[in-house]
Design brief:
single chain, TIM Barrel, 8-stranded parallel sheet, 20% strand
């Protein structure tokens, strides 16, 4: 079995915690909306590939300025060396934004359902829309209201075997889908750098994930 790829999410400017986790992860996500001022200096210190994310409030993020400024920060991130830029499928002027991002970075198109997990057919349509828009990686995140939602989120990955997909359900009931995502073909799994620094409900630490995967694979 292929070693699962882990992406640690940076939510604040804490160089020491970052240094401790970096050797154990494959890539990093820089949450511009959570870090705030200073993220530009932080990314200069990164030694692993990184994803730029500036999550809109409507999809669970903390960005408080205008939409134009939000996109400007993401374009700036691509110029500062981001390997991947996360942009929401519902972004206004999506085509133009993707065009600008793809000049320097890969484009991860994301979709977040903060209340529930839609049926599999609806999720498949979302991935198809992401691909049609030009996604290099498709990310679909739902919210688990029951254990069966884990299976729906994971089934989505198997529906697109030739596509880089990240799919899981948030919340305590979605724990299983987070852990299993890269084991069933998902591109990677998100993890927090330390306890209390989670960027989403149900997220576990990179260290805990590595221990879990070590028991399964080694």
């Amino acid at each position: 079995m292929k070693r699962p790829r882990v992406c640690a999410v940076i939510v604040d400017n804490n160089p020491q915690a970052l240094r401790e986790v970096e050797p154990f992860v494959d890539l990093l996500e820089v949450r511009i909306d959570l870090i705030g001022n200073g993220w530009q200096q932080l990314v200069k210190q990164l030694r692993k590939p990184w994803i730029a994310c500036n999550r809109s409030a409507s999809e669970g993020g903390n960005w408080k300025k205008s939409e134009v400024e939000r996109i400007e920060e993401l374009i700036n991130a691509s110029e500062l060396g981001a390997d991947i830029v996360d942009i929401e499928l519902g972004t206004v002027n999506l085509g133009k934004t993707i065009e600008l991002i793809k000049k320097r970075a890969k484009c991860l198109l994301s979709f977040h359902e903060l209340e529930m997990t839609p049926p599999l057919e609806s999720l498949k349509e979302i991935v198809q829309r992401q691909l049609d828009a030009g996604a290099d990686i498709c990310k679909v995140v739902t919210t688990a209201q029951r254990l069966g939602d884990n299976l729906t989120a994971l089934q989505l990955i198997s529906e697109f075997p030739e596509t880089r997909v990240v799919s899981f359900a948030m919340g305590p009931l979605g724990f299983m889908s987070r852990v299993l995502c890269p084991l069933v073909g998902g591109d990677f799994v998100y993890a927090s750098i330390e306890k209390g620094k989670e960027s989403a409900s149900g997220q576990i630490t990179a260290g805990e994930l590595r221990k879990l995967y070590g028991m399964v694979i080694e």
